[in-house]
Amino acid sequence: MTGRGASSAHDSMPGPASHTYFSQRLRLHYVDWGNADAPPLVLLHGGRDHCRNWDWTAAALRDEWHLIAPDLRGHGDSEWSHDGSYTMAGYIYDLAQLVHQQRLAPVTIVAHSLGGNIALRYAGIYPDLVAKLVVIEGLGPSPRALAAKRTLTIAERMEEWIREQRGLAGRVPRRYPSIEDAFRRMQEENPHLSADQARHLTVHGVNQNEDGTYSWKFDNYVRAWPPYDMRGQDIQFLWSRITCPTLLLYGTESRAGNPLEDGRASRFHDVEVVGIERAGHWLHHDQLPEFLRVVREFLKK
Questions:
Q1: pTM, full prediction
Q2: pLDDT tops 60 at residue 4
């Protein structure tokens, strides 16, 4: 690898080993980077992503940590939900099962987006099981977006969700004639990515279909957000129960916003907020060296 995705010092080292575990009858996948005697650190990806998006982070931290990166249900090489339903409760249970079954507690977690949302709630439910927490834009919708949602009645939210589910039921996974076509789509999605990064994420993010075409690994149903979730005050209550040091990261070019300015950071007891310049939502890709510097500094405290 070259450019922002480089990790040349580890190019000759073996990659991670694939494993499976079970949660609510689903066969879920995770990769383990070895170094089992080191402190455990779970890397949790975001929506419509996969565990191998952490490869550059893992290559940089594998000497100091026992790194485990799961694929969320419906993503990567994990099984898809049988009924097409993806709830936060289900995602949280999957993380709880991974930590419990592999005896990872007290665990350090680095998580992005949807993964961050899951990790924050898990840490609020089990504050004694999490040692440190790094969350990249994982606080959920901004206060402004949440306020707009609250204007809809439960009937309107349910109707919208049913309409969306029907649309997804009829949606055939997009088929790309070649990996190169999928690679170009990846580059369009995030112009910050170097060509090497986009190619790596594409190779690990697609399956080849029987007819020779390629499709993304995630289940289209993960696109639909359930019509109801925990109440905002309950989510903030869980944030207030987190006792471990917590680092909240955001990209200054992202729409996620600064959680210090919008008040969300005030719910945490021991929190640090850092904005990464010239970075968007995938800041751990956009500015990898700066991301690693900030995270290493935080984890060493």
A1: 0.94
A2: no
